[in-house]
Write a structure and sequence with these properties.
about 500 residues, alpha+beta, Phosphorylase Kinase, domain 1, Transferase(Phosphotransferase), domain 1, Tumour Suppressor Smad4, 6-stranded antiparallel β-sheet, globular
Length: about 500
């Protein structure tokens, strides 16, 4: 809702009366001024406060109304006890999950800490032409790959300690607002969704658009249902299309963001199960099912611009008939994190149209605008497979492109550190065009790096400038302290 005074937040109480909330008091006696709504669903409303790192969650009843201490005492006390229990859960340290720091005094809800300058992931799900047109300005597929990799890594950390998030949807994920900011962060909100298997399943909620088929049948959330929801969110974000919204799918009668409890789903004698939109039920093939093309569609964005063999395999393992019916064969969140980290590392941004895409060696032009590729830096493994690609911009004043070479390109994948930059790379123009590799301090004591030129290696101790000369061959080698090593060939394609 909107109000002339943006510091007023109107909702209805249990009796239908409008309550205008300007500020709230928490259980520690701190007052918080409401600024604006960040997101809303069937379970509650999340609001930003005047402190950009503090957000408020208002729990709502089944009619979408406030639960007030004075008018709904029994429900308020029940929820308050549940929020206390959430605060005692063994969440991993430094987990990007906004969980309760304090409870509200007058309303059912709690206070959470969230990094400043965040926005909902829903802003990055391009479901109309206008949103698709903005992709060239919001980081495109390359940024989405990074955010999806970090979201999957966040789920992997939770799954690693036996926790299930349950209700993964774009409304519950928040990301860094500025697409150009160096560090892109991903946070989950609504910690009351989180549970440890074995707790009361009637507390669980899900969003049907992103829910695994077994949840719609009334079964409990699990790590496997989490990864199904993640895969659905990921495909929709990249393709601008729900993975089951093909030619067989019928238009459902439900809002996309409604959520229900597992208790509701178990009422099989009611009409609800019959009415569930078939594209969310798992009863029809997904749009890229190669064994059954009956639901295939060319709608959405071209798959070849963002799908790799690795990510397609994971999507198909999740959405195939086997994946829909047997949750245990679905890929883990770690595999998803690694796959999207690889996709980001292999993506290139077109300087003409601003769109990004997974690099294809056989293509010479941008798949979006058909303009010729700029110069591109490639790193290839021992089998000649591209593991890293990035466009290059050379300027006479050395103000060209700068970007990181991520850890996972050289080292075994680690969900906690895969995104860290081993090198900062930039183009230079000293006595001819070259590429400067600046080794980051945290890696100096862990590994040795060598640049090979025509087979002759030189150790990189801090900064190394590779002068680009026609006819030369280059290789970048990483040697770990336990004597493991990886050598990547370095190529520059296109005219510098």
């Amino acid at each position: 809702m909107q109000n002339a005074d943006e510091n007023v937040f109107p909702l209805c109480d249990s009796e239908g009366n409008t309550v205008e909330i300007r500020s709230v008091l928490d259980s520690y006696g701190c007052s918080h001024d409401i600024a604006k709504v960040l997101g809303q669903g069937g379970q509650g409303v999340v609001c930003l406060t005047r402190n950009p790192e503090i957000v408020i969650k208002f729990a709502l009843d089944s009619k979408g109304r406030l639960i007030c201490r004075d008018k709904n005492k029994e429900t308020f006390l029940k929820n308050d006890a549940a929020f206390k229990a959430i605060m005692q859960k063994p969440f991993p340290e430094r987990l990007h999950l906004a969980y309760p720091m304090a409870r509200l005094v007058d309303y059912s809800g709690y206070v959470m800490r969230l990094m400043g300058d965040m926005t909902g992931f829903s802003d990055l799900v391009p479901l109309d032409e206008k949103a698709i047109g903005k992709m060239s300005e919001d980081g495109g597929h390359r940024r989405r790959f990074e955010l999806l990799a970090k979201l999957a890594a966040l789920l992997a950390k939770m799954h690693g300690v036996g926790m299930v998030y349950c209700d993964l949807s774009p409304n519950n994920v928040f990301v860094t607002k500025d697409p150009k900011f160096t560090t892109q962060n991903v946070w989950l909100i609504d910690a009351d969704n989180v549970f440890i298997p074995g707790e009361d399943s009637e507390k669980l909620v899900y969003t049907p658009r992103y829910a695994a088929p077994e949840l719609l049948e009334g079964k409990s959330c699990s790590i496997n249902s989490d990864v199904y929801s993640f895969a659905t969110l990921a495909f929709e974000t990249l393709a601008a299309l729900h993975p089951f919204a093909g030619k067989m799918a019928k238009v459902g009668g439900f809002e996309d963001d409604w959520d229900v409890t597992a208790k509701d789903a178990k009422k099989e004698d009611e009409q609800k199960q019959v009415d569930i939109d078939p594209q969310y039920s798992g009863k029809i093939p997904w749009v890229e099912d190669f064994s059954d093309v009956s639901n295939h569609t060319d709608d959405g964005l071209p798959r070849q611009n963002f799908l790799t063999d690795e990510t397609f395999t994971l999507f198909n393992m999740t959405f195939s008939e086997e994946g829909r019916e047997n949750p245990k064969i679905r890929p883990t969140s770690v595999l998803w994190a690694r796959a999207f980290a690889h996709s980001q590392a292999q993506s290139v941004r077109c300087p003409d149209c601003g769109m990004s895409f997974v690099y294809d060696e056989s293509a010479k032009n941008c798949p979006w605008c058909d303009k010729k590729h700029p110069p591109i830096l490639l790193l290839k493994d021992e089998n000649g497979k591209v593991v890293f690609a990035h466009e290059l911009e050379f300027c006479e004043d050395n103000s060209g492109s700068e970007f990181p070479l991520p850890e996972h390109v050289f080292m075994p994948f680690d969900v906690n550190t895969f995104y860290r930059g081993v090198f900062k790379v930039r183009t230079v123009n000293y006595n001819g065009r070259g590429i400067e590799f600046s080794l980051q301090l945290q890696f100096v004591d862990n590994c040795d790096f060598f640049m090979g030129v025509n087979g002759k290696e030189e150790k990189i101790s801090g900064r190394y400038i590779l002068q680009i000369r026609k006819g030369e061959t280059y290789a970048l080698k990483c040697v770990g302290r336990n004597e493991w090593s990886r050598t990547l060939s370095v190529e520059i394609v296109g005219k510098c």
